[in-house]
Design a protein that fits this description.
The structure is a homodimer of 386-residue chains.
Chain A (H helix, E strand, L loop, with lengths): L6 H7 L5 E5 L3 H4 L2 H7 L2 E6 L12 E4 L5 H9 L3 E4 L6 H9 L8 H4 L5 H10 L7 E3 L11 E5 L9 E4 L2 H7 L4 E5 L3 E11 L5 E3 L3 E6 L2 E7 L7 H15 L3 E10 L4 E7 L9 H4 L4 H9 L13 E8 L9 H8 L4 E5 L10 E9 L4 H20 L1
Parallel strand pairs in A: 1-2, 1-4, 2-3
Antiparallel strand pairs in A: 5-8, 6-7, 6-8, 9-10, 9-11, 9-13, 11-12, 12-15, 13-14, 15-17, 16-17
Helix pairs in contact in A: 3-11
């Protein structure tokens, strides 16, 4: 294990954070680059892939697996605070570092109830927040009514590790104790919200957005969600959650809206989130800047929209190979008010997130805007798949 | 473009094939290694990943994208015949090589109607083979009855590019001309068969197996399928298909068995196939040896089972990281009559195929064997996920 800085020195550093360690090197770390520059902060990235998007924008790299605790010790020695780009970490090992006064933001105690999705739902339920019915593997499911959702407790992503099962035989043959069971919610729509909490405890909440998934992978985000009447309820949920957790940083909250207009929390991501990528172009402060602000102990920025609305479409790989799709990027860039974010991944793979496009909208009438947003999303997907 | 060998010389080489070029370096190429050794053949692999499983077993490597036609020219110059490990190739570019007497097995004319899944279904339908109803994008769907299946015409794999849509709005928002539409078949079970055809036109068919998918990814294969009465019908389909195609090499045929016991072809893979991995341990000749035999112009081997039955379980990644799961491999190896095939991928990712286990079964009673097979599959998955 590497040499550890002294406690007093480390405490002082909190007040002048200039170097932020980030565990994970994917697009979520990469999209912090502009904000880091603006705030005068260097990012030091721990990742095992020298081709990862964030490697190109990092001041320094610790080239190691993201759950490699010795590498994180090295990372800790070269920066003032450590944050996370993804949740595939080993919290027990990191707690040794936390005991030695390495500062994690969010803290490990915030992450602890969130990393395992079964424990996450227990935590939310204990807070009195609305969640679907759910059951631990091996417990009696009451009422037993199919379909049910079988979800991996950890390491699920983009629909990997989520299965809809139709009968008891499928449930028994497909599941095991690495999974838990969740009620299937025949939702009217799915929505999400990004919320941030600063070191001083202030909470800022972004507009609620509608997310559209295909095979559990996010494809489109519509800003704002048209379903205004639930905005207040969702904001209250976010406030309650962030204050209970005492989180420092940004969270993504994914929710179902049921046909009878109930809100049910589906999942919490303890980090910046795909449903908040639109904030890069459409908000006064992007979720990435907001997260860095929180992590660096700076006051949070405004979450206000800079346009009446926006639509974000993910560019998902649809073939194998090392391609940069320059022509398609150019065509997408020619859509009025569009920003293309291309993550610079060296390799395409069907379903892989290669980039996204956000288009700002300026219709006064929300119905007209909804139609325009849909038409633009269609146009983007047609260019991308042509 | 590289130097091209002369035609006459190349023709002669057909009779003494010692070097086989393989486009693609994944586990399907890697599993040819034992057969290549047995047959005294060298494998030269074209892949863009120096970490790919098959790199370690290759005599030589052409390090390039699999659809890089200039690299394939180089590959052609260093081997007697070229075959394919996957279908993500550019057939138009390769046809220039075929015109210069580079030998592809299967030939490009065999691959041509199969690479695009819409064209594949058209081809099968024209042959009079049973397929689900299907429609080109933009054509009238008649009868219009949901759910429908939206499938990518190309580059789909392991469920990527297949979507079940529930209404016309989802269909319109999710689809485009890169997709086609297929009737949703509420099948009783899914089955598959591996069939091979040699240079001389002989056809060999392996036992029909039951395949169990989760989110369109194969998890378990039961050998043989219990549904004996359809064996003859499926064999007839395979014969008809292979003879019409005049394919040289192995094909995987995936089928639905409907609740009223009809056979419908879902998809053809013009290569060795996951549903045939059990043949490595359970058959006189593995599908990989069979394919190499066909490609090298050797007589095909026996497809007979060496045991009364077998069960194959895929080991799918469930987390991120560079891991080799040695303890789990050892536990799996201690199951009686089990063979572990570990593909040596340097990196795990949820859903990624990292290996498979085949267990041979020797029960006389097919019902008892079915129960044992299921219990063993459960045991394997419990070890793997524990």
């Amino acid at each position: 294990m590497g040499k550890m800085q002294m406690t007093e020195e480390r405490r002082k550093q909190q007040n002048k954070i200039k170097r932020v360690g980030v565990i994970g090197g994917g697009q979520l770390a990469w999209m912090m680059a502009d904000a880091a520059k603006k705030l005068g902060v260097d990012l030091i990235i721990q990742t095992s892939h020298k081709d990862d998007p964030a490697v190109s924008i990092a001041k320094d790299i610790v080239l190691a697996e993201i759950d490699d605790y010795q590498a994180t010790t090295k990372l800790a020695n070269s920066c003032n605070v450590i944050t996370f780009e993804n949740e595939f970490i080993n919290i027990d090992e990191l707690s040794f570092l936390a005991e030695k006064d390495v500062i994690f933001r969010p803290s490990l105690s915030v992450l602890k109830p969130l990393l395992d999705k079964y424990e996450q739902l227990c935590y939310l339920q204990d807070l009195g927040l609305p969640v679907p019915n759910f059951w631990e593997w091996g417990k009696e499911i009451e009422p037993l009514s199919f379909p049910l959702v079988l979800k991996a407790r950890r390491h699920g992503y983009d629909g990997q590790g989520t299965f809809i099962v139709k009968d008891i035989e499928s449930l028994q043959s497909q599941g095991n104790s690495e999974f838990f069971i969740q009620e299937f919610v025949p939702f009217d729509r799915e929505v999400a919200v990004i919320a941030a909490r600063g070191v001083a405890g202030e909470v800022k909440i972004y507009p609620v957005v509608e997310t559209q998934q295909q095979n559990q992978v996010c494809r489109r985000v519509f800003v704002p969600d048209e379903n205004w009447e639930l905005g207040e309820k969702i904001e209250a949920i976010a406030h309650s959650l962030l204050n209970s957790l005492e989180v420092v940083g940004v969270l993504g909250i994914e929710m179902f809206i049921t046909q009878d207009k109930k809100v049910l929390i589906n999942e919490i991501a303890p980090r910046t989130h795909n449903s908040g990528h639109y904030t890069l172009d459409a908000c006064q402060t992007s979720q990435f800047e907001q997260h860095l602000r929180a992590v660096c102990g700076l006051p949070l920025g405004s979450t206000a929209l800079k346009a009446r609305g926006a639509v974000m479409v993910n560019l998902l790989g649809y073939e194998f190979g090392k391609k940069n799709y320059l022509t398609k990027q150019q065509q997408l860039a020619s859509i009025p008010n569009a920003s293309i974010w291309w993550y610079g991944k060296t390799e395409s793979r069907p379903g892989r997130k290669l980039g996204h496009v956000t288009v700002l909208l300026d219709q006064e009438n929300s119905e007209t805007m909804g139609r325009e947003a849909k038409a633009i999303a269609d146009q983007i997907e047609n260019i991308w798949h042509s």
